[in-house]
Design brief:
With about 200 residues, the protein is an all-alpha fold. It has two domains: about 60 residues, Arc Repressor Mutant, subunit A (Orthogonal Bundle), CATH 1.10.10; about 140 residues, Tetracycline Repressor, domain 2. Helix 4 runs parallel beside helix 7 and helix 8 packs antiparallel against helix 9. The protein is elongated and about 60 Å long.
Length: about 200
């Protein structure tokens, strides 16, 4: 007789992972539609189609859901970080990064979530730390590209890579927010954004 306990355990694990993912998706939709503070755990459970008890089996509350969303953001940023890690001339790598990051940020759902999360991160330091860590990873990778550009003579010698990386990311953030709020297609402002960034970097 074959022991199927391992198979049953795997099935349970897959089912639990699907429920967890469903709860996270429901939470994101609730936060987008109603805002973080206007959303209760009952709203999330109802949207996900699970019982309140089932939700608490996966998350202790909204706070833990938001922490998990921070982890998901890290995963979504991975391909963008990968762009910064590729070889090639620094200006070309930076150009690809600006396109990818601006396009990612300019999705309305990402702008709304970023605003909701930022306000909560200010109130809750542990949430803030998670999202600051995500930003720090971007800054470090971009700073490395800028440093390489300085060494190769593509960028000015008197710029500070870390501070410049912060400023570039903040500029992309602001442009994406403006594009969404003003209902402007990111592609229509992307060229000007790149020109402005490069003008500040080139010798």
């Amino acid at each position: 007789m074959t022991d199927q306990s391992g198979s049953e355990g795997t099935k349970r694990d897959r089912a639990a992972a699907r429920r967890r993912s469903l709860i996270l998706e429901a939470a994101v939709m609730c936060f987008l539609e109603n805002g973080y503070h206007q959303t209760g755990v009952r709203d999330i459970a109802k949207r996900a189609g699970v019982s309140l008890g089932n939700l608490y089996n996966h998350f202790q509350g909204k706070h833990d859901v938001l922490a998990e969303i921070a982890a998901l953001e890290r995963a979504e940023l991975a391909p963008i970080l990968d762009l910064l890690g590729r070889s090639g001339a620094a200006p070309a790598v930076l150009d690809r990064f600006v396109t990818a990051y601006a396009t990612y940020l300019a999705k309305p759902e990402n702008v709304i979530l970023a605003i909701e999360i930022t306000s909560e991160a200010i109130r809750k330091p542990d949430i803030g730390e998670l999202f600051v860590a995500n930003r720090a990873g971007l800054v470090a990778a971009l700073s490395s590209v800028i440093g390489r550009g300085i060494s190769d003579g593509d960028f000015r010698e008197n710029i500070v890579p870390d501070e410049t990386a912060h400023l570039i990311i903040e500029l992309i953030d602001g442009t994406a927010y403006r594009a969404v709020l003003s209902e402007i297609a990111m592609r229509s402002v992307l060229g000007g954004l790149k020109d402005f960034i490069m003008a500040g970097l080139r010798p």
